[in-house]
Amino acid sequence: MAWVMHEHADVDTLAASVATELQAFCGEAIALRGQALLALGGGRTPLPLYRRLARCPLPWSQVTLLPTDERCVPHDDPACNLREIGAAFAAADGVELQGLTPPNGDPETSERHARAALAQYPQPFDAVVLGMGMDGHTASLFPGVPRLPEALDPASDIDACRIDPQPLPPEAPYPRVTLTAARLLRARSLHLYLSGADKRAVLERALRSHDPLRYPIGAFLHAADARLHVHWSP
User: Fold this and answer.
1) Strand boundaries in the chain, DSSP class E
2) pTM of the complete model beyond 0.90
3) Which CATH number do you get for residue 88?
4) Cross-strand bridge partners of residue 4
5) Tell me: the pLDDT tens digits for 19-66?
6) How far is Cα 39 from Cα 136, in angstroms, rounded to an integer?
7) 149 is in which domain, residue-wise?
8) Helices (H), ranges, 102-217
């Protein structure tokens, strides 16, 4: 089995439990290597987790956070994942944030910028936190986009690529840059963070499908060489 399910009583328990796990992973990484590296999904669902983790006692100046994906918007735009993550970690004094796009969010240079940024961090992530949309996408790995097979290839040596959702989501109509599945799977711990019955139903369909082009989260649920910890609450 490439995945393991952790069910939590409610969203507060979910956030507290996963924050405790991530704190432990960070502490272990810092003790062993002097640095912890995390890739974090955007959106509203994980923000309580991030705020709780930010209050944990860690040497935050030795922790680096990257988004798993980013919208090609300026860094001060409310739609910017880096901006939201930074706000959620306001209590984590000294934490380092690494963006995937240039400050102006230029779509034409964002892929190159992301690959150069990731080249500074060749080591595996100490933890990755993924979310999942109602269409089964994770990060910005959307079903049906032309570059999806390339972005999901587990043998790829490409760390990031530009994704243009088709059609663009009306709530966030922007080109994206996303970490590839191969880069996200290069992690010491891999977590999917979900809540609600609707998301549980999508998860069950993805588990049955075994087709990551239809449900991109399946590339992580069924990965041969990684174990995905699925954290869910009602």
Assistant:
1) 3-7, 36-40, 63-67, 69-71, 96-97, 127-130, 160-163, 176-179, 190-195, 228-233
2) yes
3) 3.40.50.1360
4) 229
5) 999 999 999 999 999 999 999 999 999 999 999 999 999 999 999 999
6) 19
7) 3-233
8) 107-119, 148-152, 181-185, 197-209
